[in-house]
Amino acid sequence: MIDLYTAGTSNGQRASIMLEATGLPFRAHKVDLLAGAQRSPEFLKINPAGQIPVIVDHGGPGGRPITVTQSGAILLYLAERSGRFLPTDPVRRTQVLEAFMLVMTDVAPASAALFYMAKAFEPPNPEVMAYCKNRFLSILAQVDRRLSRHPWLAGEEISIADFALYPTVAGRKAILEEASGLSDLRRWAQIMALRPDVARGMAVPG
Predict the structure, then answer these.
(1) Among 44, 144, 149, 164, which one is least packed by beta carbons within 10 Å?
(2) Longest C-alpha distance within the chain, in Å?
(3) What is the pLDDT of residues 163-189, one digit of tens each?
């Protein structure tokens, strides 16, 4: 059994979507970020960084418990654990990891910049927000070009890259809808939204 400690953020949703997609049994524990539960002594014993998501796999390598933090690391761990969504073929694996890193090092931080810059100024600085928005859209344009060539982010099969990307795209739906172009990204997002495992994962922790 895997214990998932999470909240309704894109980082948390990545982990819950992947758990639903792999079919690995898990229990979800909601961490109330607004109440500061991530800073409680109990939670800090699980993750001293005070961040979600965290998984504790009680049947980890060698049958021993293992704790994994960081949403990207969790997706990689669960892919290896289940043998799904991360190919073993060296070429395909590299393609998936490349797309996965595009999400984790470019798309997700650009989205996070929008969030933090909106909070940095009261009211938000329009020039800063415009810069962050344009940067985010320019990275999404790279994603759109990938999806114009293949149905999934890393090729012909769904992978950890798609599960990593979807919560960020879903969370920025308003920006996506008002942007020009990005038709292949929109098509992909609609397909992802209709997947039962994705829908269930997005609903965790409730």
Answers:
(1) 149
(2) 53
(3) 999 999 999 999 988 898 999 999 999
